[in-house]
Design goal:
The complex is a heterotrimer of chains A (128), B (498) and C (455). Chain A is 15% helix and 34% strand. By secondary structure, chain A is an alpha+beta fold. Chain A has a single domain, classed as OB fold (Dihydrolipoamide Acetyltransferase, E2P) (Beta Barrel). Chain C has two domains: 115 residues, Aspartate Aminotransferase, domain 1, CATH 3.90.1150; 258 residues, 3-Layer(aba) Sandwich (Aspartate Aminotransferase, domain 2), CATH 3.40.640. In chain C, a hairpin with a 2-residue loop joins strand 5 and strand 6. Classes of the chains: A alpha+beta (128), B alpha/beta (498), C alpha/beta (455). At the B-C interface, helix 2, helix 3, helix 4, helix 5 and helix 6 of B face helix 1, helix 2, helix 3, helix 4 and helix 5 of C.
């Protein structure tokens, strides 16, 4: 598994999720810390397209062998794309949490919410 | 093939066409083709691909398999909240009596008086032990009892014209409690634990309202601690109109010394496969009879075993009462796990009141002694007790310092214990304690057994201080070593392809 | 000391000293005084082992069991012959006394046995995924209902055939109070589920359709045809089956069922006045993550050895808690092991032959009994091992007279099927010989003649 990393261009939510904003859309995933705490991911079932997600609320679950973790939405919006590849290869969430391990793409409904998110530096500071 | 490979062949892999064990009786009746008796479209084509093995090979196969199990008759099994006490063989003998074993459940009550009387006597015994007058033996396990208790609660509130939506349970509760809550259609609300290890009374007061149907507790709790606030807790929940449910998993601590009914509980489930010596069987069977207060009685499952006076001074007659207009109904078929009742009743007769009280007392003594031994030396340093006070029948240690200082997790300690011939304690539960080890020795262990366990822990920790990797790669001497659970879950193989 | 504890006075003194207390009373002091019993409970005193044995034997002697009476009682539990090796193996300490296999490295025996059981039940039912067992038949039906709610994203209507075991229907109704779900019952026509009524009852709100085959009245249902209604509306098709008939009857998996389940007692388990037995529960691959109960899975260890573990534990209560697929913890593992050994003993050929034997003996019984004066078949549907009769005399009186001849003639239908007040359900196993069936015919004939209500 890769070493701890927290890319600078991303925004972070205190519940260990990241968001990459690209205009009106954003990609979500879980951070290196989250996948490390979970252990090897064995199952991920993406939510359905069109589902509304709310900032700070859970929109899906990630499962390891011995634990189930809620995945928290860093921002609000509507799901427009899900990472289908994770159905057969959930381990991508561990191997590449910011790249091939992305979970969903969302059309943002309240872009201003991004102001509440943390920079990489602030998130790392939170981890202690 | 290696000896190890041979050892794990499945019964299917020992199969060879033409081999068989069963010789069936002659038909003695006409044998037309089945198509003449049953329409062809309802008939099976190919028979199920069961193995073809003769009797000696079947026996050898399962005997060999059995030796790949560690078991209670062989060694110490200190699983917290499981109460792995000795399973008396007398109980097996009486359960096998044909009058019990070959009795059909639909036999008319008048021809099953021995069975019904025994069930009634067991009900009475459990009522006395629990301090609640009315008992149903129907639930098949603790979880089943929990569901029953919650459905009784639902019926109780509905009968009063109330609809409540929430059930409270401590954050230390066994996973079955919240699972049962959801199955009963309620929403679980967690109550926090205070620094003494009991229910946080402030948090409880904040959460009790008229939406709360029930509070589920076990006392002593999964930390092995008796909640001295129980009277106040009961008063609180009752004043708000809710019921108080007792998860009987920890009854072994208080049998004959204190009764849940006196503590204020309305509904209690008893795990016969814990406190009452029913063997665990590798995952059951058990039974989870429930004892309830007067106000809950009308809702008890149907049928209920009742006793009526015999006419003309003759012996009492026992019956199944189906006329229970407010009953929640059935939870399962027939009367319940009767074979388990026989064993438990035999156990109660064997011990008697004094014996049961002595069993609890010794269970508490053994737990406190082992806790004291593990408070010394290395164990005291690396595995501190989570709550520093006298425990009851079990106690919880935290492996957090061990993990931090030695890099060895509770999981690794557990796996290394396997090499020493012990079943590990319960690990990672309750969730409240980091790197938890929940230890329940039970009353049937000798002092030497407890000393040997303490010595093994010390030895493992000494080893971990020098060579932590030894525990991290353990076990070494068991039939298999650590298994790839990730693979098992990512690509489940849950049957043999044939 | 009791018979099972070992703490001598010396042990106690040493232990108390190590703890740092004078007596165990100090350990119990955490229980508030008002809650501490002054005296032990009012229970009979401890008895010697011989005394306990005598007492239990005395109670057993007052039961009319299948050794004292020829038993034609069925209704889901049957007097089959269980081979001696089942007891020999299930009484072994290594299978009898361990706990649930949470530490797989020292539980390979139990886990492999579960895997073999799962394979066998999958073979019998024709569905790919089996769990390691539930409590028994009727509550397994309720468990399937719980699964169906989740699987259909919250539908809460169940359509249930009146042919389902009354205990299953009652249990389902009890659980549905918690599920906030409704049940609609579909009636029978000449013993089998009315197809038209079923089709009408199922709609887009139905989570699952429940059938039983053979049904409670012994009739074999055309599950494939009846199941079309479920498929059409996206409801699950759940079929309860008698496992002993699966050697000869088309399995639910080949009839479009999503879930096959039932009472496992006939496989390897004693009657025991109704329990413990086990429920089997098999489903399609799509439902694997929603399955209740333990499931053993195959894998390897760090050195590449083949081994078995509890798989997909995140479904279960100890991990998933309030979101678990079920609340079950302790199940009926030893009873499932008994079934596994019995099925291995019967084997591929024996299991099929036993099914054929049951069908033929039942056909014989049907012919013999229908020919008895005052006895009629209750329905004309095909049967496998149990048949329903209509008697021209009060059933309870007939049963008493047959009992006097040492025969339990069958299960009276009247209480649970008021429309069949005169109904009797007769079950056949391989232990019911031709001679016993002939004796039953004679006894019924005589009893009906003696008790017939004169017009």
């Amino acid at each position: 598994m890769a070493d701890a990393s927290y890319p600078e261009q991303l925004l972070y939510h205190p519940d260990h999720d990241w968001a990459e904003i690209d205009g009106a859309l954003a990609t979500f995933g879980i951070t290196w810390y989250a996948q490390d705490s979970l252990g090897e991911v064995v199952f991920y079932e993406p939510p359905e397209l069109g589902t509304t997600v709310s900032k700070d609320s859970s929109y899906s679950e990630v499962e390891s062998v011995k634990a189930v973790s809620d995945v928290i939405a860093p921002l609000s919006g509507e799901i427009v794309e899900v990472n289908e590849a994770l159905a057969d290869a959930p381990e991508k969430i561990n191997e590449d949490p910011y790249g091939e391990g992305w979970l969903v793409k969302v059309r943002l409904s309240a872009p201003a919410e991004a102001e509440d998110l943390l920079s990489a530096a602030d998130y790392v500071a939170l981890l202690g | 093939m290696s000896r190890q490979e041979e050892a794990v062949l499945t019964i299917f892999e020992r199969s060879k066409p033409g081999r068989r064990a069963a010789v069936l009786p002659e038909a003695e009746v006409p044998e037309p083709p089945l198509e003449e008796l049953i329409p062809a479209n309802l008939l099976r084509g190919e028979p199920p691909r069961l193995p073809e093995v003769a009797e000696p090979e079947i026996v050898r196969h399962y005997n060999r398999l059995s030796r790949r199990n560690f078991d209670l008759d062989t060694g110490f099994y200190p699983l917290g909240s499981c109460t792995m006490k000795h399973n008396p063989r007398l109980n097996e003998r009486v359960a096998a009596l044909p009058g019990h074993a070959r009795l059909h459940p639909a036999q008319e009550p008048k021809r099953a008086q021995g069975a019904l009387e025994m069930m009634w006597l067991l009900q009475e015994s459990l009522a006395e032990i629990c301090g609640l007058p009315h008992v149903s033996l129907q639930p098949s396990a603790g979880s089943h009892g929990e569901l029953a208790g919650l459905l009784l609660t639902r019926a109780f509130h509905a009968d009063r014209g109330e609809e409540r939506t929430k059930v409270l349970a401590p954050d230390t509760s066994h996973g079955t409690n919240p699972a049962s809550v959801t199955m009963a259609g309620y929403e679980i609300v967690k109550v926090e634990t205070d620094e003494r290890g009991g229910v946080d009374m402030d948090d409880l007061r904040a959460k009790v309202d008229d939406e709360v149907a029930c509070l589920m507790l076990t006392n002593p709790n999964t930390l092995g601690l008796f909640d001295e606030n129980i009277a106040e807790i009961a008063a609180l929940i009752h004043a708000a109109g809710g019921t108080l449910y007792y998860d009987g998993a920890n009854l072994n601590a208080v049998m004959g010394h204190s009764r849940p009914g006196d503590m204020g509980f309305d509904i209690v489930h008893v795990n016969l496969h814990k406190s009452f010596s029913q063997p665990h069987g590798g995952g059951g069977p058990g039974a989870g009879p429930i004892a309830v207060s007067e106000r809950i009685e009308p809702f008890l499952p149907r049928p209920h075993v009742v006793r009526g006076e015999g006419g003309n001074g003759s012996r009492a007659a026992y019956d199944l009462d189906f006329e229970r207009p407010k009953s929640i109904g059935r939870l399962r078929g027939f009367q319940g796990n009767f074979g388990v009742f026989v064993r438990s009743y035999a156990y109660i007769l064997s011990l008697g009141a004094d014996g049961l009280a002595e069993a609890s007392e010794t269970a508490v003594l053994n737990a406190n002694y082992l806790k004291a031994r593990l408070a010394e030396g290395r164990a005291g340093r690396h595995l501190p007790v989570a709550f520093d006070r006298h425990c009851m029948h079990e106690f919880v240690l935290s492996g957090k310092p061990m993990k931090k200082e030695l890099g060895v997790a509770t999981l690794d300690l557990a796996k290394r214990l396997l090499d020493f011939g012990f079943h590990p304690p319960t690990v990672y539960f309750p969730l409240l304690v980091e790197e938890a080890l929940m230890i329940e020795p039970t009353e049937t262990e000798t002092k030497e057994s407890l000393d040997a366990f303490a010595a093994a822990i010390d030895q493992i920790l000494a080893e971990a201080e020098e060579h932590p990797e030894k525990a991290k790669q353990a076990p070494y001497t068991t039939p298999v070593r650590r298994l790839d659970e990730v693979k098992a879950t990512r690509r489940p193989v849950v049957r043999q392809p044939l | 000391m009791t018979r099972y504890t070992s703490a001598t006075p010396e042990d106690r003194a040493e232990m108390l000293a190590a703890i740092g207390v004078e007596s165990t009373a100090e350990l119990f002091a955490q229980i508030p005084a008002p809650l501490r019993l002054e005296e032990p409970p009012a229970l009979p005193g401890g008895m010697s082992e011989a005394g306990v044995y005598e007492r239990l034997a005395e109670l057993a002697a007052r039961n009319v069991d299948c050794e004292r009476q020829v038993c034609f009682l069925g209704a889901g539990m049957y007097d089959h012959y269980v081979p001696a090796i089942v007891d020999a193996i299930t009484q072994r300490s290594e299978f009898l006394t361990p706990y649930t296999p949470y530490q797989p490295e020292i539980s390979q025996g139990g886990l492999q046995a579960m895997f073999e059981f799962q394979t066998m039940m999958s073979e019998l039912t024709g569905l790919p995924v089996s769990n390691a067992g539930l409590y028994e038949g009727p509550s397994s039906v309720a468990s399937a209902a719980y699964l169906a709610i989740g699987a259909t994203k919250g539908r809460r209507r169940f359509v249930v055939s009146r042919g389902l075991h009354p205990h299953s229907r009652e249990t389902l109704a009890t659980y549905c109070e918690g599920f906030d779900a409704a049940i609609e019952e579909v009636g029978l026509d000449d013993g089998a589920t009315d197809p038209g009524a079923l089709a009408t009852a199922v709609d887009g709100e139905t989570a699952a359709v429940f059938l039983q085959s053979p049904n409670f009245l012994g009739a074999i249902e055309d599950v494939e045809a009846l199941g079309a209604a479920a498929r059409e509306h996206g409801a699950l098709l759940v079929v309860a089956v008698d496992p002993m008939t699966l050697g000869v009857l088309k399995p639910p998996g080949e009839c479009g069922a999503d879930i096959a389940l039932g009472e496992g007692q006939p496989l390897g388990n004693r009657l025991d006045f109704g329990g413990p037995s086990f429920g089997f529960f098999c489903g399609s691959e799509a439902l694997i993550r929603r399955m209740p109960g333990r499931i053993a899975g195959e894998t390897d260890d760090v050195d590449g050895r083949r081994g078995f573990v509890l798989a997909l534990q995140t479904r279960e209560q100890h991990i998933r808690r309030e979101k678990a697929t079920h609340n079950i913890c302790t199940a009926q593992a030893l009873n499932a092991l008994a079934a596994t050994i019995h099925l291995a003993w019967l084997g591929r050929e024996g299991f099929r032959e036993l099914g054929e034997l049951l069908v033929r003996r039942t056909a014989y019984a049907r012919e013999r009994l229908a020919a008895v004066e005052g006895v009629e078949l209750l329905h004309g549907a095909p049967v496998a091992r149990e048949l329903a009769l209509r008697l021209a005399a009060p059933v309870d009186r007939v049963l008493d007279r047959c009992a006097e001849r040492g025969i339990a003639a069958g299960y009276p239908l009247g209480r649970e099927y008021p429309e069949h007040e005169d109904g009797l359900l007769v079950a056949i196993t391989e232990r019911r010989t031709k001679a016993q069936i002939d004796a039953l015919a004679d006894a019924l004939g005589a009893a009906v003649a003696a008790e017939a209500v004169t017009v």
